[in-house]
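Chain A, query sequence.
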Amino acid sequence: MAMKRLLSLAAAASVACSAADAASAAASSRITATPARSLQDGGYAYLDDLSGYTLRYSSCVRAKIPQENDDDAVDGNVNFYNGRYHAQYQIYATYHVCSSCNECDTDVEYAMDAAEYLQTGMDHFENYCAACQNACRRRLDENNGGQDQVDCNVCSSSCGNYGKDNGNDESAYVECAAGAVDDDGLQLYYGPQCADDGALAIGVFYDEDCTIKTKHDAPDFDYYKFGAVLDGCVDCASGDTCEELYQESFHCVNGNDKQGQDNDMKVCAAVKNSLTTMDYSGVKKRHSGADAFLKVFFFLLVTALVGGTAFMSYTYFIRHRGERGNPILSAEDVHEEEMHEPAPGATLT
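Chain A, predicted structure.
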């Protein structure tokens, strides 16, 4: 298995970023820390030699596991838990190949199983930090001929928290393992899951393969080890870590695997969908246009109402102006009526 082969990681095979790079990396987001820059002119190119590069974590991606011969093939929801059907997802970690810790090629996303990526990263830091501790403790004896020299300041920055263990060590659940039991007596499982910020964290699952996530909250882990793997760099100057990671990963460019290894999981398509940034500026503009339309509409409506009222009033005035100038009974009509008025005491016939 590839993971077992990676356990032979040499202690002095790689070094972390410089102190300045490490400080800069810690101060910026894991997702947006690296500028968009292509290391290969003209797009993707397979790298036969990684010795001049470093690897750095990019993001976490959930890829839906296709189901065969299910009754709900469209949605793939064939696993019944907690009163409803659920789809299954596999968790992948993506990383970039960089010329330095903060100069990465973001045109290509390299994706591999999240548990394998985390375990490989922790193996790297276990060996690296052990070498740092031993070398710095000896203070680089001048008689060692320059062997095993490391930068103790960088070691302190990279490994300062890695070895801490306050009883909340998340590394026990890099591989899916039984966790708590819920109130209904159902066994739950803990394993790697995508956090809201794109990092890798421990999630709670219904199944023993950690593919069906629940809504339960995971315990509060310290994430010292995961943090070192996700925030740090792996120098490819020596050792086989970078080479094996590179060969075992999907090389995703615009949703396609340049290695031709992508299968029904469509990992690269999931990577593209997950990392696509939604631009809502157009939506805001449409909202602004709608607001302007409503303002104009109500202005025209009020204008029409006022104009209509004025027009009706004017029409009424024109129609009745003549009637006010010519009374219904003229003076002659009144005089004639008075002449025909009977005298007092006269009998009406």
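Residues 35 and 103 are 7 Å apart (CA to CA). The chain has a mean pLDDT of 76.
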